[in-house]
Prior knowledge:
Helices cover 36% and strands 38% of the residues. By secondary structure, it is an alpha+beta fold. It folds into 2 domains: 9-59; 62-152, Sandwich (Immunoglobulin-like). It has a 3-stranded antiparallel β-sheet. The protein has a 3-stranded antiparallel β-sheet with strand order 5-4-8, with no helix packed on it.
Amino acid sequence: MTTDMPRNPLLHAAGIVGRGFLLGVGFSFALGIAVVIGSRVSSHRAAEKIDVMQEDLGGKDFEKDIALTSVEEVKHDGVTAIIGTATNHGSRAAHGIHIQANLFNHDKFVDQYSTYLTGAIGPGKSQYFKISCGCKDSPPAEHDSYKLEVLGGY
C-alpha cells in the first residue's frame, strides 16, 4: 500500500501567496503603462484644445465683425436700459458676445454696465440685446451720453 505524503502546508501556502504576488505585480505593471500612455494622450489633446481656443479668441476681431445698430436708451417705470441689435458681419458664428455701456456726463465717465449674449449669432444673423442700467431703487449715475463697446466673445 502506498500513501501519498501530504505536502508541507506552510510551503503550499507560501507557493499560493507567491503566485498571487507575481500576478499582482504583473497587473500593476500593465496598469501603470496604461496610465502613462493615457495621460500623455490626454495632455496632448488638452494642449490641442487650448491652441484652438487661443486661435479662436485671438483671430476674431469683434470690433469689426459685430455691429451694434438700432441702439436706444429706454426709461420705463424708473428703470433705465439700453437696447439694440447685434449683427454678425464675420464669416463664423460668434458666441458669448460681451457688450459694455460706458455712461458719460459732459464727456466725463460716470458709470458702466454690461451684458452677455447667450447662444450663437451666425454669419449675417442678428440678435437683440438689452443692457439694464441700475434698477428702480438704484438708478444709474446722471448721464447725458453713452458709448457701447463689444469687448469679446468666441
